[in-house]
Amino acid sequence: PRSRYILAKDRLRLYLRDGYRCSYVDSKSGRRCPASHRLEKDHVVAWAKNGSNRAENLRWACKAHNQLRARLTFGDLKMSGYRKS
């Protein structure tokens, strides 16, 4: 069975690689989101689509950018059923 547990070595690699800052880069301006508060771990390949919990498949995202990526991956209709808390 798959586990959502993230190994300590992968958590460390994520911190060292990205710092603790949202990884979203605006495609128009090329600027990286400056958010560094209450970040969420985001999967490059979604967990629901068999993405792994390895550092190579993880990135930091602020809540807004994590939800944006989810909407791009799963669509507005699917994501509209989730709370925006």
The succession of helices and strands, N to C, reads HEEHH
| Computed Rg | 13 Å
Secondary structural class: alpha+beta
Q: Give the proportion of residues in helices.
A: 25-40%
Q: Overview of this structure, please?
A:
The mean pLDDT is 91. This protein has helices at 8-18, 63-74, 76-79; strands spanning 40-43, 58-61. The chain starts with 7 loop residues before the first helix and ends in a 6-residue tail after the last helix. Helices cover 32% and strands 9% of the residues. It is α+β, with helices and mostly antiparallel strands and 85 residues long. A two-stranded antiparallel ribbon has the order 1-2.
Which key features would you list for this structure?
32% helix; alpha+beta; 3 helices; single chain
In brief:
The protein is α+β, with helices and mostly antiparallel strands and 85 residues long. 32% of the residues lie in helices and 9% in strands.
Furnish the topology, listing elements before pairings.
Layout: H1 8-18, E1 40-43, E2 58-61, H2 63-74, H3 76-79
Antiparallel strand pairs: 1-2
